[in-house]
């Protein structure tokens, strides 16, 4: 993807942070104008710590920013937007994790999600243009629930098909559609 002098792309990973085979990690390495919110050393499940980590990275960037969030990174982004007012050029919100619904085994329990400040999920319109990329068979968020979140946030909804959680476990390393969605926000 060729990008002119334009927005910085800031990747917001989910709770598993950086995974080498993940499309976000691959795309960050590919783009010259890309950065990522670094992994947390402490309070890894804390919503507040995650939101503050995003704000810290944003505070170092001058000029326009496009956020590219995945899974719980989407929830970090929407919680951040409730607290901070920095202008954002746009956001790609891929495979939002529906933290209001029970997660599969191996993910945080409903009690852990509640105790760490993730609920309630923000439902107000985002103050910037956004695209929600939703899978029809995502185990971490049904298409119907994610569609409602997209509507609540005022986001454009893009049905990306039956592609699971758009992560390495679902067969994604590289995800070319992410580049297309970013380009739509320019």
Automatic annotation (TrEMBL):
The keyword Cell inner membrane does not apply. This is Alpha/beta hydrolase. One of its GO terms (molecular function) is hydrolase activity. It comes from the Bacteria. Signal peptide: none annotated. Keywords: Hydrolase.
């Amino acid at each position: 993807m060729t990008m002119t002098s334009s927005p910085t792309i800031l990747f917001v990973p989910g709770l598993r942070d950086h995974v080498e085979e993940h499309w976000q990690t691959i795309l960050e390495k590919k783009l010259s104008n890309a950065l990522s919110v670094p992994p947390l050393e402490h309070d890894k499940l804390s919503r507040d710590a995650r939101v503050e980590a995003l704000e810290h990275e944003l505070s170092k960037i001058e000029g326009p920013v496009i956020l590219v969030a995945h899974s719980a990174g989407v929830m970090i982004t929407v919680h951040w937007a409730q607290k901070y007012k920095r202008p954002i050029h746009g956001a790609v919100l891929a495979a939002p994790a529906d933290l209001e619904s029970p997660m599969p085994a191996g993910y945080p329990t409903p009690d852990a999600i509640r105790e760490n400040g993730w609920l309630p999920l923000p439902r107000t319109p985002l103050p910037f243009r956004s695209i929600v990329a939703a899978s029809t068979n995502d185990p971490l968020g049904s298409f119907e629930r994610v569609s409602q979140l997209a509507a609540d946030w005022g986001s454009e909804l893009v049905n990306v098909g039956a592609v699971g959680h758009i992560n390495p476990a679902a067969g994604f390393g590289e995800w070319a559609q992410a580049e297309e969605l970013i380009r739509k926000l320019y």
